[in-house]
Amino acid sequence: MQKKAEKMGLPKLISDLYHHNIMHYPSWISHSRKYVPAIVEKAVKQDDNYKEEKVEIILNNKIYLFGYKKVTMADDYGELELYMI
Questions:
Q1: Residue 67's pLDDT band (boundaries 50, 70, 90)?
Q2: pTM of this structure
Q3: Residue 76: pLDDT above 70?
Q4: Is 68 left (phi over 0), alpha (psi -120 to 50) or beta?
């Protein structure tokens, strides 16, 4: 299953979606709701420090938690995890 997902480009797609959109949803919802898809009922930034951040979003009454941890000092490399709660 993992190899199939990689072949389809899902890891890059999810990473791009997180970095260009989802990580900004908490602030966008409070300031510019029109930039957040209507399916996103709620978005909350749970953690925010130099090396790790967590964003929880609710879609159709389901909770998804995105955890991003920087592996190196470079801003463009890290580990992204997605949990369904």
A1: very high
A2: 0.82
A3: no
A4: beta
Does residue 9 or residue 56 have the better pLDDT? 56
Tokens representing 66?
């995105």
The SS3 of residue 50 is: coil
Instruction: Tell me how many helices (H) and strands (E) the chain has.
Output: 3, 4
Tell the residue number behind the tokens 């966008």, with chain if given: 28
Distances (CA, A) of 26 to 1, 9, 48, 51, 57: 31, 26, 12, 19, 9
Helix (H, G, I), strand (E, B) or coil at 39: coil
Sheet holding 62-70: strands in order across? Answer: 40-48, 52-59, 62-70, 78-84
Question: Which two tokens mark 3?
Answer: 């190899």
Q: Which band of pLDDT confidence, cut at 50, 70 and 90, is reported for residue 1?
A: confident
